[in-house]
Amino acid sequence: MRRRRLRSTxxxxxxxxxxxxxxxxxxxxxxxxxxxxxxxxxSGTAGHGAxxxxxxxxxxxxxxxxxxxxxxxxxGNPAPRVVGAVGGAMxxxxxxxxxxxxxWRTDGLPALLGAGATVVASIWGRTVGEYRRAAELLxxxxxxxxxxxxxxxxxxxxxxxxxxxxxxxxxxxxxAEVVDALDRPxxxxxxxACTSPVEVAAAVAEAGAAAVVCVNTxxxxxIDVERRAYSLGSGPGGGGLSGTALHPVAVRVVHDVHAATPxxxxxxxxxxxxxxxxxxxLLAGASAVAVGTATFADPRACxxxxxxxxxxxxxxxxxxxSELIGAVHAR
Length: 331
What we know:
Elements: E1 4-6, E2 12-13, E3 19-22, E4 28-30, E5 33-35, E6 39-41, E7 64-65, E8 82-85, E9 89-92, H1 101-107, H2 109-114, E10 119-123, H3 128-136, E11 145-151, H4 168-181, E12 186-189, H5 197-206, E13 211-214, E14 218-220, E15 223-224, E16 229-230, E17 239-243, H6 247-260, E18 266-269, H7 275-284, E19 288-291, H8 294-297, H9 301-315
Parallel strand pairs: 6-19, 7-10, 10-11, 11-12, 12-13, 13-18, 18-19
Antiparallel strand pairs: 1-3, 2-3, 4-5, 8-9, 9-17, 14-17, 15-16
Helix pairs in contact: 3-4, 4-5, 5-6, 6-7, 7-9
């Protein structure tokens, strides 16, 4: 009989009404960063503060990765910014709107820490210097900000003209500057929209990235056929495609990066809407997974995915999610 230990978090309810958790180890490590849970809230959909705390306990998540921040406030793109796409996907052209790093430290971060969240900050810039400046503005930030995601790959800024992650050399240049300026691990967020994500991953690792995040949204477009006009306010700039349609792309990139650089930790993100989606990315080589677009339809998606992942493991006598990481490569 499978052992069960009492707990008041993820799990189920026994016949006598006692809430329990299944005996599955849900923690993970991303490089030197130890996380309580393998499921993270992805950047771009979890907001800049504790918005998701209204829907579930943030301490149960591995981390909340905040929406990417630039050195200064940024207004983003004109409305409309979000439109549905086929197959449960979404296009967004938010354009990295944000308050800037300094304002976030004052106004957004305290609420996250007060809610008990482990935090991963996320930064972006239009130039190498802007990335470094954003990193410098994080100097001395609370130790519960355990890492910094370096967004090298957002496609909905200026129609994708600032995709540093499309070039191994450009991505490595940014990462070298950021790593030099930071006092904690830097994770490089990559794109599938390049000649070789594997080469970019190797380049940023050489430049000091402690992990890579695979993958960001892909540049797409929607046209309103009745108005004969662009559906998004960004016009010909289009927007980033996310959601379930992106998932197979993310699995392929995670798989190939892990196969080429198995020592490099990966956070898998892209279309995670269920526990089995998370399992797939773990088997491909991710050390953790992040839930993004699914939270728009279901703000409790992170906790639901975690519960489904735990149940999947328990039903197959998997005692810890760490057993799954990269397992497909051993076959």
